Amino acid sequence: MKKKVIITLTSLSLTGGLLAGCAGKDDHSAAKANDGTPPTVKLVMSDRNMPYIQSSPNINDDKYVKKLRELPKTDVRIETISQGDYSKKLNLMFASGELPDAIQAVNGITSPEVAGALNNGAFYELNDLIDKYAPGLKTKISKELWDSSLVSKDGKIYAIPREAPTPNNRIVYIRKDWLDKLGLQAPKTVDEYLNVLRAFRDKDPNGNGKQDEIPFIGRKNFDFGYVFFGAYDVSPEGWKYVNNQLVPNFIRPEMKDALKLHQQMYQEKLIDNEIFVNTAADWGAKIESTQRVGMWIHAAEYPDKTATSYKILTPPIEFINIPAPTGPDGKGGNLIGSVVDPLSTWVIPKTNKHPEYVLKFLEWFLSDDAQKFLNYGLEGDDFTMENGKITYKRLSTKADADREQMHLQWLRLIGPSNIHDQEFMKNRENGQLVGEALKIATSEGRVNDGLDMPIPPTLTVKPELQYTGLWMETAAKIITGRDSLDSFDKFVEDWKKRGGDQVIQEATDWYKHNKGIK
Predict the structure, then answer these.
(1) Are strands 340-347 and 160-163 parallel, antiparallel or unpaired?
(2) Could you check whether 2-165+339-366 and 170-335+448-454 share the same CATH topology?
């Protein structure tokens, strides 16, 4: 009962805050636009744990942001929020009613904080506004993206999507120099992977005379670390339609086999024993600074940047991308994700009196001028022009690579990824590595039958039933040896009694409606 009261009060606070925000906003931006000066567009964005953004004393004074004002003739102002605090800060923002002109919605309109605000009428329906002010958004962004539940609800568009670089965007990175030094072939099956990881643990491939290697690493709550769960087709954030029900992977019987494997890997120190607490910074430092890690998971769009920046480390790191470990069914890989990039969809609060300014600004990102700026950066700093031909400057330091992320990825609010620009990739240092990585990404991966599903209502009011709650707690105890493997069966039973059966029913109803199953 106490939880219900809290939810109700939050909703009332949210509604009141939004109404107050609507009443208090003036028309200064309209006046500016009418007198010929650029309209102002205020954005809130995640810093995505990118070092260049995190280290900026004032992102709005940054030279790339200044160029972003100049090119589309829009006075864009950006507020950044750390990725780890993003959900919490958005909730506080919604409650206050002090909202920007557009918000980067991580996981789209299905994320808990955005979904709650949407249900309270916080955002514009965009169908007619797009047709009137920015029709290029619909003609240049495919219908598949607009139909995603991260973007639309009940046929109404509430967000502007960015195209995902590739739906399966997490693949294996492994130290090639370590494999070569130890005379090892690239592994394929789970057992072959375990043998390679044991060699990394025991044979001092980093050559410092200490047994300090970390064979495989992930981040907190197994982020960037689900690949061995994928070998059993139970990536915990996914769902499977079995026996006429859509059920979360983390309660399926196969999960017990996956937990047994991870318990073994933890006991043998084949997996970083700090996997339940590693921050993004910890993860990066162990791979790059101390150079103790043999295998990790990262984006299929990143190997060119990674190879370039790792080459200039002391000593340099050499890696390759390889297919994920295959399990009992001969398949493997991470979950195949949405065609919508979950890191960047854009919603427009109704407190914004001129949503057309945001729509026109975002439409510009689909132009040739935008793609040139986002891909190549600033003339003189990042590239030179000679006889009409662009020469892109090679990256010589890690700071160069971090700076490149600014224009290549962070400022790409919507539109296609640079990896699909063949001319750009052909002339890019290590660009061929991305093509090889994409071949791996498109040839593997596990289907998520709950892809793009809105969060079931019961999970909204009982977040402990999500995989980051009770399951993560149970998994941690089993993997670290504090509980027996059989405690998983008790967890499943308790999870269902605490509301899990209702979650399954809600998810199944959505699935059948979505697939036209009666």
Answers:
(1) antiparallel
(2) yes
CA distance 58 to 65: 10
For residue 491, give the H/E element and its range: helix 487-495
CB 43 within 8 A of CB 76: yes
Q: 0.90 exceeded by the pTM?
A: no
CATH superfamily ID and name for 170-335+448-454? Periplasmic binding protein-like II (3.40.190.10)
CATH number of 2-165+339-366: 3.40.190.10
How is the chain split into domains, by residue range?
2-165+339-366, 170-335+448-454
Distance, CA of 306 to CA of 285 (rounded, Å): 14
Q: HEC states along 347-368?
A: ECECCCCCHHHHHHHHHHCCCH
The whole-angstrom separation of Cα 446 and Cα 419 is: 23
Give 54-58 contacts, CB < 8 A, sequence gap 24+.
54/82, 56/80
Torsional class of 183: left (φ above 0), alpha (ψ -120 to 50), beta (otherwise): left
Whole-angstrom distance, CA of residue 196 vs CA of residue 200: 6
DSSP 8-state symbol, 189: B
Residues 6+ away with beta carbon under 8 Å from 208:
none
pLDDT digits (tens, 9 = 90+) for 444-476: 999 999 998 888 999 989 999 999 999 999 999
Per-residue pLDDT tens over the stretch 125-173: 999 999 999 999 999 999 999 999 999 998 999 999 999 999 999 999 9
Tens digit of pLDDT for each residue in 15-66? Answer: 334 433 443 444 434 435 566 789 999 999 999 999 999 999 999 999 999 9
In 277-339, DSSP assigns E strands to 293-299, 319-322
End-to-end CA distance of the chain: 34
Euclidean distance between CA atoms 353 and 255, whole angstroms: 50
Give me the mean pLDDT over the 246-254 stretch: 98
